[in-house]
Amino acid sequence: MLTLKLLRDDPEYVVRKLAVKNFDAREIVGKIVSLDENRRRLQTELDGCLSQQKQKAAQIGGLMKEGKKAEADAVKAEVSSLKEHSKELEKQSEENNAELNSLLVLLPNIPCDLVPEGKDSNDNVVVKMGNKIPDLGPDALPHWELAKKFDIIDFDLGVKLTGAGFPVYKGKGARLQRALINMFLDINTAAGYLEVEPPVMVNEASGFGTGQLPDKEGQMYHANLDNFYLVPTAEVPVTNIYRDVILNDGDFPVKMTAYTPCFRREAGSYGKDVRGLNRLHQFDKVEIVRIEKPENSYKALDEMIAHVEGIVSRLGLPYRILRLCGGDLSFTSAITYDFEVYSAAQGRWLEISSVSNFESYQANRLHLRYRDESGKMQLAHTLNGSSLALPRVVAALLEDNYRDGKIYIPEALRPYTGFDCIG
After folding, report:
1. What does the alpha-carbon distance between residue 15 and residue 30 come to, in Å, rounded to a whole number?
2. In 150-296, where does DSSP find H-type helix?
3. CA–CA dist 245, 363 (Å, integer)
4. What is the C-alpha to C-alpha distance for residues 289 and 354, in angstroms, rounded to an integer?
5. How many C-beta neighbours within 10 Å does residue 156 have?
6. Half-sphere exposure of 154 toward its Cβ, with a 13 Å CA cutoff?
7. H or E element that contains 339
8. Minimal CA–CA distance to 207: which of 174, 183, 233, 170?
9. Alpha helices in 296-412 (DSSP H)
10. What pTM was computed for the model?
């Protein structure tokens, strides 16, 4: 959530920067600035009214002692009137602040200066590519056919048990899932990330803290009776560990990693892009989260990008890194780099990771602060990244490594799978 100070000090800057996200903020920003002015006016008036109440109430006892009952009664009447006025001011203030907060959450995060302008994914900028794209020749098969051929992923059984987008992994397919999760967690913990195992259901406050609510409630599975949400990513519970926390200057950096299943409704998704593992309602993902001081957050972002790149490189998959344009940037992100791997059988790039810096946007919603060296309270910066999301990694691993009737496991993964090939 953007700070009132920023909106008050330079509303034109906010309007101009949010236009990079193709978001017209002028009307909302104007209303927020007006409501903020009214908030401060009401608070000043209320403080003055309460001060008068206190002063006059203190006079009553003295007047009564002096036998000036009529004067004391007159002051009592004034105090009563001031109390009524205070209640009215408090009511106006509550209504004003409720409207103000309802508008604040409608504003997305401001993109940083590195974010290129653009309307959609077609305008994203490729900043790096790695590993050679394999030439599979005429024997190339998409992963859903390979999954059926080797009986390692059953999409039809998932439909029977739950519905489309909930596959069942079997035999070496299940072991491959477990191997990837363990490999990713081991690499992350070796890099200094603390492993945590969070709940996979969160409350409304957690969803609000990281920005999923009220922006993405339509994409989340909701347990109505308890008002809990199934997590769309481990980012939500892990980052919320530090909700309402005040850190000290020496607590940084905070580095955490977690594996969770993730649940996304993906409402409106259809067509060839959703076949097989390309788009699921339930999938496994390992996440990394960092909390940093503002002056260190972009160095941390570079470290996270290099860390994720190292994992993809070890898997031997052809990849590219993209800097997302303003129009493709998420509601909460200040900057995002996407990792994509190439699916040789499908002839297309598949996103497997997003690494983002949210600057102070999430921290403001989370009330996540720290005391700097001078003792002053500051908002921290939050970052996260997928390291990695499994479905499309598995899709590319199956397709890109299928040769001579077998699927060969990348060497770095073999200690975790316990087998060299499938088939």
Report:
1. 10
2. 155-161, 172-190, 204-209, 235-240
3. 10
4. 12
5. 11
6. 14
7. strand 335-343
8. 233
9. 297-315, 361-366, 390-400
10. 0.94
Contact yes or no for 107/57 (Cβ under 8 A) = no
Q: Enter the tokens of residue 64.
A: 């009564």
57 to 52, 190, 207: CA distances (angstroms): 8, 65, 46
pLDDT 10s digit of each residue in the chain, 423 long?
999 999 999 999 999 999 999 999 999 999 999 999 999 999 999 999 999 999 999 999 899 999 999 999 999 999 999 999 999 999 999 999 999 999 999 999 999 999 999 999 999 999 999 999 998 888 899 999 999 999 999 999 999 999 999 999 999 999 999 999 999 999 999 999 999 999 999 999 999 999 999 877 889 999 999 999 999 999 999 999 999 999 998 999 999 999 999 999 986 555 557 899 999 999 999 999 999 999 999 999 999 999 999 999 999 999 999 999 999 999 999 999 999 999 999 999 999 999 999 999 999 999 999 999 889 999 999 999 999 999 999 999 999 999 999 999 999 999 999 999 999
Measured CA to CA in angstroms, residue 378 lies from 209, 295, 369 at distances of: 17, 12, 5
